[in-house]
């Protein structure tokens, strides 16, 4: 099942911290006017959100929506270490938006995600020139990583390196006559095993993935006014213009000649 997310969001960060809680640490009861993302790295704590009590533990992620009534305290014999970010998020019309994430999810300790939070916290604390641009970008990367883990149920860090190698090859050579056998040889596998592995990792057959990559590139070229339909087909590996048109319509839902009418705002 596909998940629709808003790709046009801009965060405005108000507060960031790596917090090592003390026995007396608490958050007094208050209504928050921002989104609170808290990633529990160690320990346990009690959060009460809109009157409902949650015990959080190592590997839990809290995503508390703006407007929530929030309070929290530590469990004294198992003190928490957390990364916490408070921010508002806006769509392209300047309207406040909310993240499409559950209030509480156990995602475990992901070393890459911990690293991203660490870099975000360090950049915020150092406050070097341009840090707001940098931290907004870093927070967006974290948001996308959370989408992958929680909404898309994918963990690219666990992807098979042979499939990653094939994907990288496709991204650089999509315009050439790439074959399943060529990719399987690159991965050091027979074609049957490679095809099954690729499908398991990506959810798509190799040729489906290749076709979608080509059509996505063609769409970009047409929307940017870089070339006409015939040129886009040729640049994306299609010698048969009729076949290109059929594939484009099948994937995008409209013909390549209509593409300029579908330019993003």
From TrEMBL:
Domain HTH araC/xylS-type: 164-262
InterPro entries tied to this protein: AraC-bd, Homeodomain-like_sf, HTH-like, HTH_AraC, HTH_AraC-typ_CS, RmlC-like_jellyroll
Keywords of the record: DNA-binding, Transcription, Transcription regulation
Name used for this protein in its record: AraC-like DNA-binding protein
Superkingdom per UniProt: Bacteria
Keyword DNA-binding included in the entry's annotation: yes
Native organism: Paenibacillus qinlingensis
């Amino acid at each position: 099942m596909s998940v629709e997310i808003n790709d046009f969001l801009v965060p405005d960060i108000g507060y960031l911290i790596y917090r090592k809680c003390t026995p007396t640490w608490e958050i007094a009861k208050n209504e928050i006017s921002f989104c609170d993302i808290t990633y529990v790295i160690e320990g346990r704590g009690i959060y009460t959100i809109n009157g409902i009590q949650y015990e959080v533990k190592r590997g839990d992620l809290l995503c508390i929506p703006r407007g929530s009534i929030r309070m929290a305290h530590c469990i004294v014999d198992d003190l928490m270490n957390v990364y916490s970010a408070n921010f508002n998020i806006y769509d392209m019309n300047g309207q406040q938006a909310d993240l499409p994430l559950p209030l509480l999810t156990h995602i475990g300790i992901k070393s890459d995600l911990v690293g991203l939070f660490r870099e975000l916290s360090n950049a915020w604390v150092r406050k070097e020139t341009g840090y707001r641009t940098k931290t907004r970008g870093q927070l967006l990367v974290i948001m996308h990583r959370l989408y992958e883990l929680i909404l898309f149920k994918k963990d690219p860090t666990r992807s098979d390196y042979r499939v990653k190698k094939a994907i990288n090859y496709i991204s650089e050579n999509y315009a050439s006559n790439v074959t399943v056998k060529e990719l399987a040889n690159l991965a050091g596998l027979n074609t049957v095993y490679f095809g099954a592995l690729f499908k398991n990792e990506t959810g798509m057959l190799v040729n489906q993935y290749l076709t979608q990559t080509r059509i996505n590139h063609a769409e970009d070229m047409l929307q940017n006014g870089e070339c006409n339909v015939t040129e886009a087909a040729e640049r994306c590996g299609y010698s048969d213009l009729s076949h290109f048109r059929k594939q484009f319509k099948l994937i995008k839902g409209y013909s390549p000649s209509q593409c300029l009418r579908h330019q993003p705002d």
